């Protein structure tokens, strides 16, 4: 304890902050890269004028609340004030649209990755580039604004992501990690920068309607390990209005939650992959080479070091599970029982292991928002069952967990079957895996691949960006990110691997046949409600 207190006081620490969909989380790591303090702040997006958004006021209120909780945890555990950190990194939800004018004023409310109203732009750009441009990518949002003739385009001077925005305000630098940048605009793997051919094609397409060249609008791209500025006095006050936190910490390039998830699971080497499960759920597979053709279900992005990654991104993940858990907790409270949320989740998840392997005639769709992989522009959460099916808690919960994984399975089939992509290992992380052995086992069945979870699985991307911050300041000269993770951070880490269970694999396959057949029901619900 005394050694850690000394490390905190001397700034031999790294601070990672991640702005997730429902929680902003901060972790402080010590010299051995383990988590020594945490803080968090809950928040939620708003659906305003048919657009999913967060206000910038909510961003800073959340960041300050999160940092205050972290500082309080440090004080409680170690009896000292959090006045300095050795390195700092910011991560956040990828993609979306944050457009600013020359004075740094936001031109239109933040349009998050969750919006799927960019179909025309996505289709047009994918055809123009010969490269899949998903609905949620920043360039799709920009071109949709062009197609809509939006007035603010005449004043646009800077376009970034949420992580890029926060980093800019903390450091004064408009930069982005290559992994996050690859979700704004395609990256040329050979150069590590934006694809110049596609930049030129876009400039021709948008000529006269966007005042600057696209390269002038986008943030500069940096790989992991490059210096990305320092915490300014103004930035320190934005994080900590009490004045305790001092400026000067080195900042690593801001990254997206996909990249920090790869770091948090040691999945940056080729033929490794990870699955992150939270409000959205996505798989990241580091490729040996290019795919044979373009697939609308697959995004091509990069690791924080700039290697090519196939990404299966599902807009809808665990939110509907959270809603059902809340309902059961409310019922428990009405009965007079204590309804600790962790106990509720653990009870419900463990019950799922005894459910019918094929879902027992139950069906669920977890679509709170649109889902491009299944070509749905809006979502309606649904639960339905066949006449005569057995409605019990175990099968109900297994069905809900299956539903959270089903769309991911559709995308993974493209990689594993159509493209014959090979994997040496698959890691999983995120809150869905906090209850040991449940979601991990069902995911192994869904993709028919062993799934490994580590000690840091529930810490997720906040720890991942703290590791990237430490990589900036503590790596040896010439050390790659893969070597740093394998030889330093994960050396001796405890890992638990779940092998696919044959009955679960067969059951999930049967569930998927019914799921795909029932998709027209979900589509009809979006048209008639």
UniProtKB/TrEMBL annotation:
Record GO terms (molecular function): kinase activity
Pfam families to which the protein is assigned, alphabetical: FGGY_C (PF02782), FGGY_N (PF00370)
Keyword ATP-binding among UniProt keywords: no
InterPro entries membership: ATPase_NBD, FGGY_C, FGGY_Carb_Kinase, FGGY_N
Biological process per Gene Ontology, one example term: D-xylose metabolic process
Domain called Carbohydrate kinase FGGY C-terminal: residue spans: 274-471
Residue ranges constituting the Carbohydrate kinase FGGY N-terminal domain according to the UniProt record: 14-128
Superkingdom of the organism of origin: Bacteria
Keywords of this entry: Carbohydrate metabolism, Kinase, Transferase, Xylose metabolism
Keyword Kinase among UniProt keywords: yes
Family of the protein in this entry: Belongs to the FGGY kinase family.
Name of the protein: Sugar (Pentulose or hexulose) kinase
């Amino acid at each position: 304890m005394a050694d850690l207190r000394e490390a905190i006081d001397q700034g031999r620490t790294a601070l990672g902050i991640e702005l997730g969909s429902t929680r902003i989380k901060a972790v402080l790591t010590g010299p051995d890269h383990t988590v020594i303090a945490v803080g968090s702040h809950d928040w939620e997006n708003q659906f305003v004028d048919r657009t999913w958004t967060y206000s910038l006021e909510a961003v800073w209120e959340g960041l300050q609340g999160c940092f205050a909780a972290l500082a309080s945890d440090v004080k409680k555990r170690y009896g000292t004030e959090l006045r300095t950190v050795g390195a700092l990194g910011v991560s956040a939800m990828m993609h979306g649209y944050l457009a600013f004018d020359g004075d740094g004023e936001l031109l239109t409310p933040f349009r998050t990755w969750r919006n799927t109203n960019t179909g025309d732009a996505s289709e047009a750009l994918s055809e123009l580039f010969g490269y899949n441009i998903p609905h949620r990518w920043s360039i799709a949002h920009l071109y949709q604004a062009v197609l809509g003739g939006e007035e603010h385009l005449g004043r646009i001077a800077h376009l970034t992501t949420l992580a890029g925005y926060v980093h800019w305000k903390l450091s004064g630098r408009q930069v982005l990690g290559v992994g996050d940048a690859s979700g704004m605009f395609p990256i040329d793997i050979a150069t590590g920068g934006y694809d110049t051919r596609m930049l030129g094609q876009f400039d021709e397409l948008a000529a006269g309607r966007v005042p600057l060249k696209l390269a002038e609008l986008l943030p500069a791209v940096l790989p992991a390990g490059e210096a990305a500025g320092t915490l300014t006095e103004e930035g320190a006050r934005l994080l900590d209005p009490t004045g305790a936190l001092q400026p000067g910490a080195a900042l690593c390039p801001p990254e997206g939650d996909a990249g920090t998830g790869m770091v948090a699971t040691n999945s940056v080497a080729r033929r490794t992959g990870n699955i992150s499960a939270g409000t959205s759920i996505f798989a990241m597979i580091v490729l040996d080479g290019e795919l044979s053709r373009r697939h609308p279900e697959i995004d091509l992005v990069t690791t924080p070091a700039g290697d090519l990654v196939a990404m299966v991104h599902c807009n809808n993940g665990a939110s509907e599970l959270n809603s059902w858990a809340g309902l059961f907790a409310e019922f428990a409270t009405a009965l007079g029982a204590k309804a600790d949320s962790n106990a509720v989740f653990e009870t419900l998840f463990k019950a799922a292991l005894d459910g019918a392997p094929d879902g027992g005639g139950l069906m669920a769709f977890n679509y709170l928002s649109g889902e491009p992989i299944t070509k749905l522009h809006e979502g309606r959460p649904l639960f339905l069952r066949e006449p005569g099916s057995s409605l019990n808690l175990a099968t109900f919960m297994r069905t809900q967990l299956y539903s959270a994984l089903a769309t991911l399975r559709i995308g993974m089939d493209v990689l594993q079957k159509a493209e014959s992509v090979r994997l040496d290992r698959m890691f999983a992380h995120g809150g869905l895996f906090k209850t040991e052995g449940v979601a991990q086992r069902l995911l192994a069945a869904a993709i028919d691949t062993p799934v490994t979870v580590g000690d840091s699985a529930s810490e997720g991307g906040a720890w991942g960006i703290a590791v990237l911050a430490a990589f900036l300041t503590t790596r040896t000269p010439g050390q790659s990110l893969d070597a740093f993770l394998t030889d330093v951070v994960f050396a001796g880490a405890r890992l638990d691997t779940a092998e696919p269970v044959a009955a679960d694999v067969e059951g999930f396959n049967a569930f998927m046949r019914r799921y795909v057949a029932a998709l027209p029901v979900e589509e009809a619900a979006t048209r008639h409600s």
